[in-house]
Amino acid sequence: MRAAVFTQPGRALDIVEGIEIDDPRPGEVLVRIRYCGVCHSDLSIIDGKLPFPTPAILGHEASGTIAALGPGVTGLAEGARVVLSMRPPCGHCYWCVRNEPVLCAETAGRPGSGEPRAWHERKPITRGFRLGAFAEYALVEASGVAQVPDAVPLDAAAVVGCAIQTGIGSVTNVAKTEPGATAAVVGLGGVGLAVVQGLVLSGAGTIIGIDSVAERRDRAVALGATFAFDSVDADLPQRVSAATGEIGCDYVFDTVSSTLTTRAATGILRAGGKVVLIGVTGDPQPLGISSMDLVMRQKTIMGSFLGNCHSQRDLPKYLALCSAGRLDLKALVTAIRPLSEINTAMSELRAGKGVRTVLSI
Asked: What is the 3-state secondary structure of 75-123?
């Protein structure tokens, strides 16, 4: 098969032919990847901000069709259109039985720590995020795929695998916002715009989008944001205070999670409110806040990985919302490029251009 291969930080990905991948084992499916979104987590690995074993095939936000079923797999058929999840829960470990599926002991291991399943010239290649979807084929547990309704195009459906899961799940599964809540979203990329849509679906009363890119702010407003501010500068607390009746936000979702944005997020949070950190920064960064702010004003900081989504519970729900016209996937996709242009897509993401590029594979 053909794939984009990561060989070392700071170097462009190589398009490589002749990669071999295992046949599906019991409980697994082999998926012919058709589309894969380009996510900031992939870029962080390529730029050396997140350590990762090499060589590796990255890519984890994918859709495609089932090419083969492993022994014992039922309820799926070859040719079925599916979305993939990088964290299919086992359903029986300590974390799964406590409704913390993304912490599943069987799928949360270190990258590259498992048995190799892909090869090039007899040398193993790591499947990044347990998928390796910047490739023509990917192996995944059957519990990690959800069938895509005919009304949902596969190119747009790809973003359900990461951006939608992370964004909407952060609202409903992690923060558990209530109707009428006041919320802000720092960073309006693919995940941020999914958070905005999750807040709309949850009945939030006021939604504030914050991003330096005008196109992203415009998209946030079109999706239901009440206000859109352009930066996390010194004037932001005053603008948010005016927009929230001098109280501040009940919830702030930080899709960047840098010291600067986390400090800004807690600065616009009301006493007793919650900050949800979503961004994956790589290198540890100080939160930039005072412990007294947490103690005396009872503010809470929460982490959200993949929105604590359960692939079999949440993916079908999100896809049904798409079919019903209540969730706009196309608003997240600003470009579709062939796999051969993956390095161009990475450069555009690095420059903050557009929202989400989806690769056609």
From this structure: CCCCCCEEEECCCCCCCCCCCHHHCCHHHCCCCCCCCCCCCCCEEECCE
Q: Quick check: 328 and 167 in contact, CB under 8 A?
A: no
Give alpha helix (H) positions in the chain: 40-46, 154-157, 163-169, 190-201, 214-223, 236-243, 259-267, 291-296, 311-323, 342-350
pLDDT one-digit tens code per residue, 153-200 = 999 999 999 999 999 999 999 999 999 999 999 999 999 999 999 999
Let me know how long the chain is: 361
Q: How far apart are CA 348 and CA 351, in angstroms?
A: 5
Q: For residue 300, which phi and psi values (nearest 5 degrees)?
A: -125, 140
Note the pLDDT tens digit of each residue in 294-335: 899 999 999 999 999 999 999 999 999 999 999 999 999 999
3-class DSSP assignment, residue 268? coil
Contact 119, 53 (CB under 8 A): no
Q: To the nearest 5 percent, what fractions of the chain are helix, strand and coil?
A: 30, 25, 40
Please give the structure tokens belonging to residue 16.
């490589």
Residue (of 77, 58, 81) closest to 155 by Cα position: 81
Closest by Cα among 198, 254, 214 to 352: 214
Instruction: Write the DSSP string, 183-219.
Output: EEEE--SHHHHHHHHHHHHTT-SEEEEE-S-HHHHHH
- 270, exposed or middle or buried, with CB in 10 Å at 0-12, 13-18, 19+? buried
- The pLDDT, as a whole number, for residue 109 is 58
Structure letter (DSSP) for residue 174: I
Alpha-carbon distance of 83 to 327, in angstroms, equals 16
Separation CA 196–CA 171 (nearest Å): 9
Place of tokens 């390529």: 46
Tally Cβ neighbours within 10 Å of residue 137.
22
Report the relative pairing of strands 118-120 and 20-21 from DSSP bridges: antiparallel
Which residues are CB-neighbours of 292 under 8 A, at least 6 positions away?
none
pLDDT number for residue 112? 47
